Amino acid sequence: MSDEDLQVQFTTLMRGVYKKFQYVFFAAAGSVLVGVTIPVLLVCWHNSKEVTDQLRLEIGQPAVSPLFDRLYALTSLEAIATMFCGPGAVVLSILLYTFTLKRLGHNSPAQPKREPESHELLWVCMWRGALISFLNFPGLLSFVLVGDNGVMQFVRFFLLFVVAGATCGAWTGWQVYRHLNPTAPFFPRYRLSTLLGLVFAWAVLLAIFAPSSHS
Fold first, then answer.
1. 129: Cβ contacts below 8 Å, ≥ 6 apart
2. Is the pTM of this model over 0.70?
3. For residues 28 and 90, is the Cβ–Cβ distance under 8 A?
4. Residue 101, Cβ neighbours under 10 Å: how many?
């Protein structure tokens, strides 16, 4: 067998793997972006000075300039969060993806298959995503970074997980819909009520994570 034949076989194999797993890959990648990267940005935006000072003391990094120190802290925290929370976000999104397909009968030949509407999948996966987001146990350590010890610390922590988890769930639900309907577009088609609900939830989250006056 020539090198050209091997290359053709390898390319065909990789295309088959991509075609089979592309939707679960997009579900996992989107969950890391929405469930890990964006929450870290919110935490650093709200508590940038405290996070910067704490990280700089922990690693022994001397102060250079406020901008550099905050960018360095943000990069470091993103790397740490991706390393410890990213795998959990990937696993939870894959579990939600496969569980949803199984409930629809598409992973079991013995069950009758259902073809739900897109908004039905989005809503179901939204509340499932909000619930299972708390199972990303390394992410629970973010509690110490979301503000001072008080009621608002619990509110920020709870809403951060619920809103990010629900958004990840909706995105995963859309990938399940694309799996069942390959001609569906890449970006979700939300009902107006769903879109307004997500926009309002993120607006509330941005409001309660607005930087404190001393940051």
1. 92, 96, 165, 166, 167, 168, 169, 170, 172, 173
2. yes
3. yes
4. 18
Please spell the DSSP secondary structure of 82-134, one letter per residue. Answer: HHHHHHHHHHHHHHHHHHHHHHTTSS-TTSPP----HHHHHHHHHHHHHHHGG
What the block records as the tokens of 43 is 């935490």
d(CA 21, CA 145): 35
Q: What is the mean pLDDT of the chain?
A: 81
Q: Which residue's structure tokens are 């922990």?
A: 58
Digit-coded pLDDT (tens) for 145-186: 776 767 888 999 999 999 999 999 999 999 999 888 888 888
Residue 169: per-residue pLDDT: 94
Cβ within 8 Å of residue 69, ≥6 positions away: 52, 56, 61, 63
Query: Which of 83, 189, 171, 81 has the alpha carbon at shortest distance from 126?
Result: 171
Residue 175: both structure tokens together: 């990938």
151-162 b/e (C-beta count within 10 Å ≥ 16 → b)? eeeeebbebbbb
Coil/strand/helix, residue 195: helix
Q: Lowest mean pLDDT: which of 37-46, 103-112, 118-127?
A: 103-112
